[in-house]
Amino acid sequence: MKKKTLLAGFALLGALALTATGCASDSDATGDAGSGGDDGVVTVGFAQTGSESGWRSANTESMKEAFSAENGFELIFNAADNDTAAQIAAVRDFINQGVDAIVIAPIVEDGWDDVLQEAADAGIPVVLEDRTVSASDDLYASWVGLDFKKEGVMAGEWAAETFGDTPTKMVVLEGTTGSAPANDRAEGFDEAIEGTAIEKIDSQTGDFTRDGGKTVMEGFLQKYGADGIDLVYAHNDDMALGAIEAIEAAGAEPGVDIQIVSIDAVKDGMQALVDGKINFIVECNPLLGDLAAGLVLDVLDGKTVEKKVYVEDQTFTQEQAAEVIDSRPY
Ligand code: AHR
After folding, report:
1. Ligand 1, closest atom to CA 54?
2. Rounded to two decimals, what is the model's pTM?
3. What digits encode the pLDDT tens for the residues 300-324?
4. Smallest Cα–Cα separation from 43: which of 102, 87, 117, 86?
5. Pairing outcome for strands 168-174 and 280-283
6. Domains, the chain, ordered by start
7. Ligand 1 centre and the CA of 201: distance in Å?
8. How far is the CA of 38 from the centre of ligand 1 (A)?
9. Of all atoms in ligand 1, which is nearest to the CA of residue 181?
């Protein structure tokens, strides 16, 4: 199944790599890069989290485009519907099928040691994309994604600058419990607002979904009233969009009566920012497919790859969003 030559479609990778920064490391304990068949096709099992958000849809599309038949891959795609046990079972299934490589967007950080060891024992290299794991980095070849803590810091810095010494009641819509972005975005934000007059009065998971964000926000509004909340920090745009629905249903004006800061910068989120319903967004770039595919090919070719490849994020005010929204690719 394996191929050895880099494909023309990946000429693009050099350019993309310029936007990414890495931590050099070799990738030996991550599978036998020489295994696989000889029909020129690289078979890759991709264990996606699910389809919880607009970000996830854009990420899945990017991965499917990069790991396409046209680019020399056979992609076996699995979306686990945010079920960690199902995602681990999918990876075991890829191992049993004898794929050439496995790519995982891990739902949560913990619990990966055994199955990653099984992949290594089977000589199948693993590349992580998007989210990280707590397992030893000896168990996977590389990871490509975003600096979630930095995203939280950037969101928190906006809040600190905007509210400063003004007493501010904040509620938080957390991402999936135990996931790297939920953990790191909380940590980064909390560090950035330390010493300000922003008080976190409540924090609950909305599981990165629009419905989850709406339901949790409805609960917060019932408990504290619209007048008792000044700021919402949503760990992603979809939950912010759900919160907007809840705030409007409660008769308050999102972005004015209750300010909102979120993370992702997907199309719907950016539109809400342009419309004045969200106040600030930190980007989380979902277009990781080409970088992930390039890493898989390099690992299979026995090349040394970066252990961590970070893609840079930017931030958007309402005015900046209005300028760029039409040219955004997702
Ligand atoms: O892991 C990235 C996060 O997962 C995105 O911010 C969120 O929208 C998605 O569900």
Report:
1. 8
2. 0.91
3. 999 999 999 999 999 999 999 999 9
4. 102
5. unpaired
6. 3-145+286-311 (3.40.50.2300), 148-284 (3.40.50.2300)
7. 24
8. 36
9. 1
